[in-house]
Amino acid sequence: METVIDDKQSCSIHNPCGTNGYCVDNIDDEWSCRCKFWWNGTLCDEQTNSGKQVIALGCILGAFLIVFYGLNIFYYISHKTNKPKQDTKKKIIVKNVKQSIRLGPFIILLLTLMLATLALIAKWSLLKPIHDTIIYQYNNNLPLYYVPNRICSIMTMNAFNVLTFPVACCLILICIVITKRISLFPHQCHGYIAPPIPVDFLSHIDRKFASMIFAICADELFGIVRSFFSNRSSSNSEGIILQYLERILEVLIIGLRYYPLLATVYLDTVLALACGTIYAWLDFSITIVNQAMCTSDYYFTLDEYSTSDNGSSLIEKLEYYGTDSQLLVIELCTDIPRFLCLAYVGIKLPALLISKIYRQLRKDALSLEDQILLKLTREERVILRASQPDSSEMLYLRNLFRSTDQRLCTQHRFGQLIPKWIYEWRDDFYFSTRVLCVYSSTILLIFFITVQACVQILPTLHSIQKVIQEFFNLLSSFGNTDEDIMSSATESKPTNSQFPVPNLERPYALAVVTTVLIIVVQSLVMLANIRRNLFQSFRGDDSEIPRRKPSKYISYATGNMHFAGYFIGYLIWGYILIAVFASLLWISIEALIIYRNAQLLESILKAIIPSLLLIYFKAYLNKILAQYVFLQHAGKVLAIKNRRLLMIFIYFNFFLDAFLGFISSIIRLIKSVIAGMIYMCRLDYSPLGRKLELFDGGFSAYCGFIHTECAHRHPIMLVFVSHILRQCKMKQFAHDDNLIGVTIQNNRQRIIMPKEKRNRSLRTIRKWHLGLLLARNPMIVFFRKAYLNRLHMNDIQPLDTLDSDDPNNIMNQGMSTHAHYRSASHASVASMMNAQHRSNGWLNGN
C-alpha cells in the first residue's frame, strides 16, 4: 500500500517509513511509503490480516515440526536404550600388518618436487624481463605487447610444434618396430612391427603414470578451447568449419605427442624406456621455454595484441592487480599442477629405466619363477598377477566367504585416516586406469577453470555490475505506473531500485567457492558410486543399473567409448550452471543484507511463502497422523490401525489434495530444474526418471562403462582365467628339462621328478579335481563338451534363449535345463539322477 504525503522533506533527509517500508520521492516533492510484505498503514506500522494469518500458520507448522521430530528422537533414544549391547569389535580373521613407507615412491616424490621447483624458478627468470617490459610500456602509455624471442619462430610454426612432434613421430616408429604381434601373421618379420598399446584402460597397471599424462593433456586441451573462443569473438576470415577442423587437428597432434610416452612405459623394454626418458626431458625443457617466452597466459605478443582490442583486458588486469609482481606470481601459481605432472613424468621414466636395467643385470640371480615371468608378455603377466595371494581379486574372493565384521581392514595408511562413515577404503578393489585418467583430467580442468574464472573476471566485475543493475531496473519497470517510472528515472542511488545490485566481488568469490565445493563433492560421490555399482554388477544386482541385455550390447560398447568425454563435457556444463545459479543466489543474499531493499525478491517471496507454509503444514500433518494414528508400532511395520478413521480421512483428503497437487506440481518443476543443475556433472544420475533413464545419453554411457568393466574386470573371472593360464604356462615350460617340476604360483616348495611320472601324476590330479568340481557343482556336468555333442537340434534351440530379452525367459531356462538332462541321459551321473527321478515318479504314481 502506498500513501502520498505532502511534505517538503525528501526521503534522503528524513525516512518516516522505518524498517517496514520504503520511502519514495515523486516529482511533486512529495514522499510516500511502500510497505514491505504484509505491512499496512500510512507509515507501514500496521499488520494486514494476511500477515497475521501467515504468522499463525508458521507457528502451527513450527509446533508440528517440534512434535514430529521430538517424538522421533524420543523413540530413537528409547529403542537404543532398550536394545541389548553388542560387541562392536570386529572379528578379524587375519590381522593385517601395517604397511611401512616405501623408500622408492618417497624418493620419486621428493625428486618430483625438486624438479618442479627448479622448473618454476627457470620460468620466473625467463618471464621476468617480459613482465618488466610490459610494466614499462604501461607506465609510459605505450602499446602493451612484447616481441618474442627468435627461438619461438623455430619451435612453433602456425601453432605447430616443429621440434617435439617429429621426435614423437620417430619414437612412435621405433615402438612400432619393437612391438610384437600376437595373432596377425605371427611368423612374418619374426613377429615384430605392430602398433603399440598406449594404455590398458581395463587394468590398474601404471595407472598413476597414465593419469599424469592425461592431466597434462587436459591442460593443453583447455588452452585450445580458450583460444577457440577468443578467435571466435574476434574478427576471423576463416570459416567455422575450418576452425573446427583446425582445433581437431591440434587435438590429434597433442595425442600423437604424448602417445610415445605411454607406449614406452607399456612396452617396458630398455630401449623403449631410454627413448621415452630422452623424449620426456626434451619435451619438458621445450615446454618451459615455450610457455615462458612464446605463449604467456596474460602477456600479449604483437599478433595477440592486435586481436584483443589493443590489450584492453591486460590494462584491466594491471589496474586491478597492480604493476608489481602479482600477475607474474599468479601465472606461476597456475603452472604448479602442470609442472608437477611434467616433473613426475620426467622422474618416473628414468626410475623405470634404472629398475629395468637392474633386473636385467641380476637376471641370473633371480628365482626360477621370476625368470619364467620375464619370458612372458606384458598381458600375460597382468593376468597372472590376478591369482597372486595378495592381489585385489584374490582378496575379493576371500571376502565372499566372510561377513562384513570379518572383512580385513585396509593396509593403506591414507585409507585408515578416512572415517568409514565418509568412505570405506577396501583393498579388494582398485579403480581401473581409465577412471584415474578421467578424474586426474577433471581435477586439473576444474583447477584451471576456477583460476581463469577468478583472474579474468574479477577485474571486469564493476562493468558487469552496471549491466546487471540496468537489467533489473528494466525488468522491474514492467508493471509499474508511469509516475513510478518517472520517479525512478530521477533517482540515481542503487537503494531506490527495486533490486539494488551490491558490489559483486564478495558474492562472486562465494559463488566460485560454492561451485567448486559442489562439483568436487558430486565428483567424489560419483567415484564412490562407480565402485558400488561395479560391486552390484559383480554379484548380479540390477537395483540401480539396468540388467544387461544382448540387444543392448552395441549400445553398451558405444556408451563405453563416450564415457570419458561425456563425463568431462557434463562436468564443464554443470560447472557453468551451478556458477550462474550460485552467483544469483549470493547476489540476492548480499542485497538483502546490505541494502535491506529488494522489492523484486519481496514480491516473489510474498507470493510463494503462503503456499509453501500450507503445503508443509499439510505434509507434516499427514506424517504425524500416518506414523502415530494410522500405522501400528509407530510406523515400524506397514500395518494399518484405526481403519475407520483412515477411510474417513482419505475420503476428505481426496478432494483437498487436488488443490495442493497443483502447487506441488510447480514445486516439482522447480526442484527438477535445481536438481538437474546440481546433478549435471553426475553421469550415474538421470533427471529423466527410472523409466526414461536410458534416453539420457550420459546415463547410457555410464551403463555401458559399468557393464564393460564388469564383463572384463570381474574378479572371479580374472582369477579363473589366471589359474588356467598358469596351468597352460606350466605345461609349456615343462618341456624344458631344467624346468620340470617348477611351479609359478604361491611360492610353493618345488618338487623335481621324472617327466613321465610327473605327467601321470598331473593327469591323476586333474581327474580328481574334475570329479570334485562336478560333485560340488552338479549342473556343470550338463555344460561339458561330451554332453553338448550329444544334443539334437531341438535340444540346442532352448540353449540360445538363456540370455535373451524374452519375458518368458524363465520358461526358456526350464526348457534348457530339461534339454541338459536329456543330453546327459547316457552319462553315469545323469543316469543315476534320472533313475532316481523315475523311481520317485513311479512311487508317487502308484
From TrEMBL:
Domain EGF-like: 7-45
A single GO cellular-component term on record: plasma membrane
Keyword field: Cell membrane, Disulfide bond, EGF-like domain, Membrane, Receptor, Retinol-binding, Transmembrane, Transmembrane helix, Transport, Vitamin A
Compartment(s) where it occurs, according to its Swiss-Prot or TrEMBL record: Cell membrane
S-S bonds: C35-C44
Pfam family, one: RBP_receptor
InterPro entries: EGF, STRA6-like
Keyword Membrane assigned: yes
Organism domain of life: Eukaryota
GO MF annotations, alphabetized: retinal binding; retinol binding; retinol transmembrane transporter activity; signaling receptor activity
Membrane topology: Multi-pass membrane protein
GO terms, biological process: vitamin A import into cell
Segments passing through the bilayer: 55-78, 99-122, 159-178, 436-458, 508-530, 575-595, 607-625, 645-670
Matches recorded under CDD domains: EGF_CA
PANTHER family linked to this entry: COILED-COIL DOMAIN-CONTAINING PROTEIN 180, RECEPTOR FOR RETINOL UPTAKE STRA6
Name the UniProt record assigns to this protein: Receptor for retinol uptake STRA6
